[in-house]
């Protein structure tokens, strides 16, 4: 395969757009919890830790749950290109609101809402445009291309973490949020320029969706109405019965968890039952549903980076290097730095595996990712025991955890993007990319809820927390590996199921 085939010209343009968008998002995310718990006199909101991490979970989950309607808008009306343009503008408005909010809660929350809506429009559609650059059967090239694209995400993340994190903690929170707005503006201008060149003709307005006959269209409409109605009745019933408490941030986070799970199930069933799918497409939808669940578990662990691990870095880690104290937010940069270093190795490995005929099932990749993310928390168990004695621990513990988590992420996230773009039914590609990000939404919310009980003033409880995170990740990871071969054969995934004469892995 030629280098142009692996990395077509449009890929670099999308790499740069995603880089600047992720600069804005991760730069803001690095200081979000720290801003929320900072005293009002120092420019923060002065919230309790439990409420702050719950808000973090609500926000990060909202960013990804809105990717589903963002993909729907693109598939049905605007096309990916217009959805990305509108989303970028809304994100810029959101960051400007954060920069001027100060201690005004309403303005700050409005800014978070804008960023969530804008990201929901941008995120699934830029990924679907990457998928447009490759043939369906080019699995190795597609995985390598998405790995390269994923590196753009993390170049932006590390730049955003350093710049916005430093400005926010050292100069003032509004400087950090303002830097994120400038970065997103750079991404928007780059996308407009690329649309006239390398991306010309990509992400166009979709053709009008037609059902094969009137009976199929009628069934689709009835099924959609029934699923929406059932979801509304379920949520209303839970609220009236008191199961959902909307009087606190933690309660709202729990309610959002129910909402996200309901939306995910309803969306999946709607496409599966009323999407006019062939038998092969339905089998592949089952595969995507299983990968969705695995991804949700993974992100519920991985997204501890912005909550429990961020607090661990701030309160329990020795960050002093000579006369300089490393800002706690800078630990967020370890993951994107490792991504940048390791991505070329992973991309080269996927291409080599394809050349040699190695069939490494997507289920094996996801299973290994779950096991590794659990091992990362196991490494923190002895660190938490040291912290329980009142001694701040070496930064090497977090260094090792982020390194292991990065390897896990590279086994799951770019591979998941590639797989969803390849296996999704043609007319639902952007929506299925939104469904993929919905897994991150659910996982992010669970991450906030898992961290809400964390109390660094009594670190003796932390070993138990990290052990739960370990076992809750390793068990489903092992299960995925065990079912990989029979499930791949059943789903008839080309180049995923082992065939006679090939080296199975």
TrEMBL record:
UniProt-listed CDD domains: MFS_DtpA_like
UniProt membrane topology term: Multi-pass membrane protein
Domain Major facilitator superfamily (MFS) profile: 13-489
TM ranges: 23-41, 53-74, 83-101, 147-167, 173-192, 225-246, 252-273, 285-302, 334-353, 360-381, 393-412, 433-453, 465-484
Source organism, top-level taxon: Bacteria
Annotated keywords: Cell membrane, Membrane, Peptide transport, Protein transport, Transmembrane, Transmembrane helix, Transport
Matches recorded under PROSITE patterns: MFS, PTR2_1, PTR2_2
Compartmental location: Cell membrane; Membrane
InterPro entries, A to Z: Dipep/tripep_permease, MFS_dom, MFS_trans_sf, MFS_Transporters, POT_fam, PTR2_symporter_CS
Alphabetized Gene3D superfamilies for the sequence: MFS general substrate transporter like domains
Keyword Nuclease applies: no
Broad class of the protein's primary localization: membrane
Similarity comment text for this entry: Belongs to the major facilitator superfamily. Proton-dependent oligopeptide transporter (POT/PTR) (TC 2.A.17) family.
Record-given protein name: Peptide MFS transporter
Organism: Paracoccus aurantius
């Amino acid at each position: 395969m030629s280098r142009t085939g692996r990395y077509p010209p449009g890929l670099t343009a999308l790499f740069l757009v995603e880089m600047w968008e992720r600069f804005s998002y991760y730069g803001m995310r690095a200081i979000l919890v720290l801003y929320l718990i900072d005293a009002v006199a120092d420019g923060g909101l002065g919230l309790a830790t439990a409420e702050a991490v719950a808000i973090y979970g609500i926000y990060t989950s909202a960013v990804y749950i809105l990717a589903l309607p963002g993909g729907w808008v693109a598939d049905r009306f605007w096309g990916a290109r217009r959805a990305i343009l509108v989303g970028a503008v809304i994100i810029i408005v959101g960051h400007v609101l954060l920069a001027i909010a100060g201690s005004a809660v309403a303005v700050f929350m409005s800014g978070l809402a804008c960023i969530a809506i804008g990201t929901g429009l941008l995120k699934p559609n830029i990924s679907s445009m990457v998928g447009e650059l490759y043939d369906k059967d080019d699995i190795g090239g597609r995985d390598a291309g998405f790995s390269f694209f994923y590196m753009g995400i993390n170049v932006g993340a590390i730049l955003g973490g350093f710049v916005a994190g430093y400005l926010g903690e050292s100069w003032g929170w509004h400087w950090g949020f303002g830097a994120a707005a400038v970065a997103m503006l750079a991404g928007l201008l780059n996308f407009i320029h690329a649309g006239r060149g390398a991306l010309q003709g990509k992400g166009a307005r979709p053709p009008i969706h037609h059902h094969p006959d009137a009976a199929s269209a009628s069934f689709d409409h009835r099924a959609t109405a029934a699923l929406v109605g059932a979801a509304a009745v379920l949520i209303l019933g839970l609220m009236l019965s008191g199961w959902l408490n909307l009087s606190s941030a933690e309660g709202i986070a729990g309610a959002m968890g129910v909402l996200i799970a309901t939306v995910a199930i309803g969306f999946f069933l709607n496409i599966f039952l009323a999407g006019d799918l062939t038998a092969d497409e339905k089998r592949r939808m089952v595969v995507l549903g299983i990968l969705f669940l695995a991804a949700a578990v993974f992100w519920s662990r991985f997204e501890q980076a912005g909550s429990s691990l961020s607090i661990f870095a701030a309160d329990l880690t020795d960050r002093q290097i000579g006369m300089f104290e490393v800002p706690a937010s800078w630990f967020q940069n370890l993951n994107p730095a490792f991504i940048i270093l390791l991505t070329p190795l992973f991309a080269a490995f996927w291409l080599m595996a394809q050349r040699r005929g190695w069939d490494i099932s997507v289920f094996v990749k996801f299973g290994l990712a779950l096991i590794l993310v659990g091992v990362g928390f196991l490494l923190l168990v002895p660190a938490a025991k040291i912290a329980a004695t009142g001694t701040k621990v070496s930064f090497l513990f977090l260094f090792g955890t982020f390194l292991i988590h990065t390897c896990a992420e590279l086994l799951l996230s770019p591979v998941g993007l590639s797989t969803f773009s390849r296996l999704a039914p043609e007319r639902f590609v952007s929506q299925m990319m939104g469904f993929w990000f919905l897994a991150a939404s659910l996982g992010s919310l669970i991450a906030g809820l898992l961290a809400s009980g964390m109390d660094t003033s009594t670190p003796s409880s932390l070993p138990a927390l990290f052990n739960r995170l370990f076992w809750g990740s390793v068990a489903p990871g092992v299960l995925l590996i065990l079912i990989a071969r029979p499930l791949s054969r059943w789903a008839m995934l080309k180049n995923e199921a082992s065939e006679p004469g090939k080296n199975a892995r």
